[in-house]
């Protein structure tokens, strides 16, 4: 990707959701991108479908709760957008399911900004636990995934690329090029699954990055002895990375997305923003 011209930020009902606006604004301001926001959540009645048939009064209470939650998030959004200097940023919302609503708008954007969903918090956020990976896989759009822990709005100064010879990894690196060109330092992690750390010849990713004016330090190794996702997060801490770039791996079986081991670990345990592409 030569330029990031448009960014679409997803807002849900979780506490602190509008904090993501700072990171999205920082990214948009750096790259001269148009920023759009979409609030899309699962209505409470769909989260508790038995309520509608069992007790009409309870159904009314859940509908009122949706209105109250939307008002809370929007009020937080209004305060946040003024604090970060976005007085003209519009609030957009949808009554459709979050996946259907966001997927439709995602095709208009160059980059999506999504959030990690805590497995024990998906009811509070009102989005499915697998919302982010499903959006990535079903749209093919690259996304910046922000951890639920607050890592601040600054990122992209020290970038770690998780590299393997795959289409998803290549698409992630290509999508990250505008960020990589501005980074102060770039690291590449590459493990040889054949068991050999390599013969010292430059990796194809090294040549690709060099041709785009990005110089990277490569960390090569043989077949990893531990879980690769944990090794990546450990290396990210060692090099003080503030952004991880990697492919998102998964496939569908019986209407359910099955994620690869590394992808699953990163979605569950990320400690820094991750730019992903399927």
Q: Could you give a quick summary of the protein structure above?
A:
With 278 residues, the protein is α/β, with parallel strands linked by helices. The protein is built from eleven helices and eleven strands.
- What is the total tally of β strands? 11
| SSE class | alpha/beta
In what order do the strands lie side by side in the largest sheet?
A: 2-1-3-4-11-8-5-6-7
Count of helical segments? 11
What does this structure look like?
By secondary structure, this protein is α/β, with parallel strands linked by helices. 41% of the residues lie in helices and 21% in strands. It has 11 helices and 11 strands. The strands form 2 sheets. It has a 9-stranded mixed beta sheet with strand order 2-1-3-4-11-8-5-6-7, with helices on both faces. Strands 9-10 form a two-stranded antiparallel sheet. The two termini are 15 Å apart.
Which descriptors would you attach to this protein?
11 helices; two-stranded antiparallel ribbon; single chain; 21% strand; 41% helix; alpha/beta; 278 residues; 9-stranded mixed beta sheet
Mind sketching the topology for me?
Layout: E1 6-11, H1 20-31, E2 34-39, H2 44-47, H3 50-54, H4 56-83, H5 98-106, E3 111-115, H6 122-125, H7 131-139, E4 143-146, E5 158-163, H8 167-182, E6 185-191, H9 204-211, E7 216-221, H10 228-238, E8 243-247, E9 250-253, E10 256-259, H11 261-269, E11 274-277
């Amino acid at each position: 990707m030569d330029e990031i011209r448009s960014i679409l930020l997803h807002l849900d009902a979780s506490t602190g959701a509008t904090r993501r606006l700072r990171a999205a604004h920082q990214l948009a301001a750096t790259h001269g991108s148009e920023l759009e926001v979409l609030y899309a959540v699962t209505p409470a009645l769909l989260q508790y479908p038995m309520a509608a048939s069992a007790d009409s009064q309870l159904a009314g209470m859940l509908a009122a709760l949706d209105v109250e939650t939307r008002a809370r998030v929007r009020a937080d959004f209004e305060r946040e957008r003024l604090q970060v200097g976005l007085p003209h940023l519009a609030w957009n919302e949808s009554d459709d399911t979050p996946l259907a609503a966001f997927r439709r708008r995602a095709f208009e954007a160059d980059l999506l900004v999504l959030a990690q969903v805590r497995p024990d918090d998906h009811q509070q956020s009102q989005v499915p636990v697998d919302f982010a990976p499903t959006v990535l896989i079903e749209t093919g759009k690259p996304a910046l995934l922000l951890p639920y822990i607050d890592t601040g709005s600054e990122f992209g100064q020290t970038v770690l690329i998780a590299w393997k010879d795959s289409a998803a990894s290549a698409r992630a690196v290509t999508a990250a090029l505008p960020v990589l060109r501005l980074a102060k330092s770039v690291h590449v992690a590459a493990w040889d699954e054949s068991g050999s750390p390599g013969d010292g010849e430059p990796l194809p990713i090294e040549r690709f990055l060099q041709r785009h004016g990005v110089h990277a330090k490569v960390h090569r190794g043989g077949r990893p002895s531990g879980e690769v996702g944990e090794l990546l997060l450990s290396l990210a801490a060692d090099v003080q990375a503030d952004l991880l770039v990697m492919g998102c791996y998964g496939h569908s079986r019986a209407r359910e997305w099955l994620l690869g081991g590394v992808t699953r670990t990163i979605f569950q345990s990320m400690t820094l923003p991750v730019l992903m592409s399927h």
